[in-house]
Amino acid sequence: PDYDELNSITDAPTNLYPDSDEPYTITDAITDLFITEAEFENMVESLKEKKNLILQGPPGVGKSFMAKRIAYTLMGKKDDSRIKVVQFHQSYGYEDFIQGYRPYNGSGFHLQNGVFYDFCQKASSDMSRDYVFIIDEINRGNLSRIFGEVLTLIENDKRGPQYAVSLTYSSDLDKTFYIPRNLYLIGMMNTADRSLAMMDYAIRRRFAFVKLMPQFGSDKYKAFLEK
Cα separation of 87 and 98, whole Å? Predict the structure, then answer.
């Protein structure tokens, strides 16, 4: 094969839908969806109220598609710089998500911050705008192990510096961590995978749950197929 050509394809820009300065509303989101405006508005309001939302449903029902549009609506514009997406799996841990020691340039182990820690710091420095952290396959991970002591902080009424805690690997007890009020969590859960354990109540009570089902009977779906 022509490896130069392959590399040129691989190195092509991945952002096929560039951010827009145009306002993004529920009306804009609904044009891409087969559900009603009232159903979508309920999802957005549930996220605003709990700050944590889980979209559950069978594979292929559009959970990822929906999550992005909920995030855009919450933020009021398409801005992927304020959205972070990760996928949980059985080996995913606290060290990947919050903080842990990792090999560093062949010179031993160094304390490094995880993806959620860094995203919280980014949101904390920009409190005038909303940020959305999206977790795919949220029920595939051991959530108690992944979140650790931060699990308490994701509650709506435990956000902010007044609820800051010392982290497990922190050597400085005066250096604490908190989740800012302008950060929202959206999880996606595949209900067709029966091999997964049920989420425990400690997790369930912290999230609003919305069930997504195929919309084969929707008039908008029929019109889409006819078009």
Answer: 14
- Of 142, 113, 116, 151, nearest to 131 by C-alpha is 116
Radius of gyration of the chain (CA): 19
Q: Nearest 10 degrees: CA dihedral of 201, 74, 134, 225? A: 100
- CB 192 within 8 Å of CB 37: no
Q: Are 34 and 212 in contact (CB under 8 A)?
A: no
CA distances from 41 to 25, 27, 30, 34, 72 (A): 10, 10, 10, 13, 13
pTM of the predicted model as reported, rounded to 2 decimal places: 0.85
Gap between the Cα atoms of 225 and 217, Å rounded: 12
Instruction: Determine phi and psi for 165, rounding to 5 degrees.
Output: -130, 160
Q: What is the pLDDT along the chain (227 residues), one digit of tens a residue?
A: 343 333 333 333 444 444 567 899 999 999 989 999 999 999 999 999 999 999 999 998 999 999 999 999 999 999 999 999 999 998 999 999 999 988 887 778 888 999 999 999 999 999 999 999 999 999 888 888 999 999 999 999 999 999 999 998 887 777 899 999 999 999 999 887 755 555 667 778 899 999 999 988 888 889 889 99
Residue spans of beta strands (DSSP E) within the chain: 52-57, 83-87, 99-103, 109-113, 131-136, 183-190, 208-211
Three-state SS at 166: coil
